Amino acid sequence: MGKYTDNPAAVAALVEQHQVHRDTYIDQEIYELEMKHLFSNTWVFVGHDSQTPTKGDYITTQIGNQPVIMVRHSDNEIYVLYNRCPHKGTKIAIDRAGNTGKFFRCPYHAWSFKTNGCLLAIPLKKGYADTAFKDSEANHGLEPVGDVKNYRGFVFARLAKQGISFEDYFGEAMSSFDNMVDRAPEGRLEVAGPPLRYMHQCNWKMLVDNQTDTCHPMVAHESSAGTAVKLFEEANWPEDKPKPMAMEIIAPFMSPYEFFEEMGIRTWPNGHGHTGVHHSIHSDYTQEPEYWDAMVAGHGEERTEEILSEIRHNTVYWPNIMIKGPVQQLRNFIPLGPNKTLVESYIYRLVGAPDYLLQRTAMYNRLINAPTSMVGHDDLEMYERAQEGLHAQSTEWINIQRLHTEEENYDEIAVENGTTERQMRNQMNAWVKFMTMTMSDKVEAAE
Ligand SMILES: [Fe+2]
Questions:
Q1: How many helices, marked H, and strands, marked E, lie in the chain?
Q2: Left if phi > 0, otherwise alpha if psi is -120 to 50, otherwise beta: which for 227?
Q3: How many angstroms does the Cα of residue 391 sit away from the middle of ligand 1?
């Protein structure tokens, strides 16, 4: 046990109003405490219900470092269960996705479980006849996580049995999910294939911070997006000819500081927030008349106008996902260690929309997010350099002070200049809140 375990005061001291101590990004003990407290007390994204459309369909994933199965049970509901046989601990499911039929069967001793986790059968059950097995934890079957919520297809879970409700945790922040789903003429999304998956040798929070870091695109992406813009200018593309889709996507990364200042950042309580309040890098995408018509048929003209005029950029749902409503994407930053993060980049189909929309979504994912992309690896280079640089025997603090004011209250919703680092401060404020809420009991008792 190190200096931070059961010591909420020491953990809280790592975050000051305008700066964050490097241990939050590089320390093994802090990482383990994040898994135990932060990822247990918060609502964490698990998957989309269209990944498991049929009874018996499941995916395996992680909530923090906890292996879980998301499965569709015979009642058609989605269950989230710990991926651990109650007998000896064996992971019940090992594939990323599959269909298990009516039950899970442990490959070690053939204990079987209904798809809601209940114990179904044990070979040689009579061996337990004269024991107190029925009172044992093993008899409970596969343990469900603390709580599960399916919000318009997006499944979230809280590991802790007790804690903040889904509604209180996200509040008005769910408006970004609403807008993404409402963009489907039929009001429903479907996952479009498995996500892109790639490994980053850096702390998961570096990726989260990057989502509302509006002062880096014109710098870090100059070599990629800047070069694309320059070459396109030299090509003398005719005014009346539609711009290639790739250029529509990549050119706005080179927008000047003023563009990002004016676009605005909104922060919500509990560490959630988004860029692109007034406009965003997605604002000038070509709108196909066919899509407009499908939307009007589904939602009516007034509502369509309302939905499509909300063009948010990145929305962070603390702790570890980001969505882009206008391009139907979700990126999941799964922490594997203080300096190792698995990124999953999902894309979704707008049900009822023309294929053009999915083409753009898929192109965005390949062009901007993929390991082979022109843009994403610019960011990766920065994260990995920072992960190394933080070990320098220089200052131990990371600065998050841009446009900081003394009166900031993160329990209030605020809209500010789009270059503020308020959202990063909001995140770390929530970090302290959820890291320390279950540590404090012991300490208070000890005092
Ligand atoms: Fe970037």
A1: 17, 21
A2: alpha
A3: 23
Count up the domains in the chain and report the number: 2
Residue 345 lies in a domain: yes
- What CATH number did the domain enclosing 74 receive? 2.102.10.10
Amino acid 208 reads V
The verdict on 241 and 372 lying in the same domain is yes
From the CA of 314, how far away is ligand 1's center (Å)?
11
Residues with CB under 5 A from ligand 1 (ion): 379
Whether the predicted pLDDT of 355 surpasses 50: yes
* Secondary structure class of 20 (helix, strand, coil): strand
CA distance 278 to 283: 10
Collapsing DSSP to helix, strand or coil, 316 comes out as strand
Picking from 132, 151, 170, the residue at the C-terminal end of a domain is 151
Task: Quote the ligand 1 centre to 382 CA distance (angstroms).
Answer: 9
From the CA of 217, how far away is ligand 1's center (Å)?
A: 5
Across the range 306-323, mean pLDDT stands at 98
> Domain check: are 204 and 127 in the same one?
no
More confident residue, 240 or 34: 34
Strand, coil or helix: 65: coil
- Domain boundaries, position 61: 45-151
Name the strand (E) or helix (H) holding 114: strand 112-114
Q: For the chain, give the longest Cα–Cα distance.
A: 85
Ligand 1 centroid to 369 CA: how many Å? 9
Q: Are 269 and 333 contained in the same domain? A: yes
To the question of pTM greater than 0.85 for the whole model, the response is yes
Question: Is residue 146 located within the same domain as residue 197?
Answer: no
Indicate the range of 78-82, 282-286, 293-297, 443-447 predicted with least confidence: 443-447
Per-residue pLDDT of 7-63, as tens digits, reads 999 999 999 999 999 999 999 999 999 999 999 999 999 999 999 999 999 999 999
Same domain, 255 and 304: yes
**Distance from C-alpha of 357 to C-alpha of 324, rounded to nearest angstrom:** 14
Q: How far is the CA of 243 from the centre of ligand 1 (A)?
A: 23
Say how far apart CA 163 and CA 150 lie, in whole Å.
17
d(CA 226, CA 379): 15
Q: Say whether both 55 and 202 belong to one domain.
A: no
Structural domain ending residue among the three candidates 151, 182, 211 = 151
